[in-house]
Amino acid sequence: MSTETVSQKQYEEFDDIPYFKGESPTAMKLLQGVISYGFEKPSQIQGLAIHPLTAGMNVIGQAQSGTGKTGSFVIGALSHFEPENPNVQLIFLAHTHELAQQIQDVVINIGKHMLKGPESVELCVGRLISVEENMNNIRRQRCQILVGTPGRICDLVSRTTRTANGGK
Prior knowledge:
Largest sheet: 3 strands, parallel
Radius of gyration: 17 Å
Strand order of the largest sheet: 1-3-2
């Protein structure tokens, strides 16, 4: 990630954000998803955070509940998503199962014009989905995005590493 700074400009329209001004088919599909999700204009946090995120910058943002923080980081992450790459490209971590499910829903809905389908996004949380099911879906390369809790994601990485190293 770059350590450069991006102006703190507040964008009032999604169309004005530099990422969406290009002719990239991926950018246009993402913008379609943003609009079809129901976002008409960027909220304050979105207007400030989306541009630096799409530019590959690290962002620390704070805003009240319900102001569009999840939409901001999902849009920022999906701007770096390559629909034709079948490998896992994005991992979203959430501290609760409920938040992971909410993030999964936002990713699927905003990314619906980019993703091959809902199966592209794997929910990795305990109790709801077995580790074996997660592993099978990842191995079959059905998913390109993981959304989960830190414990489950670490468990999956550990199991994958052990398998790759011959079970050691």
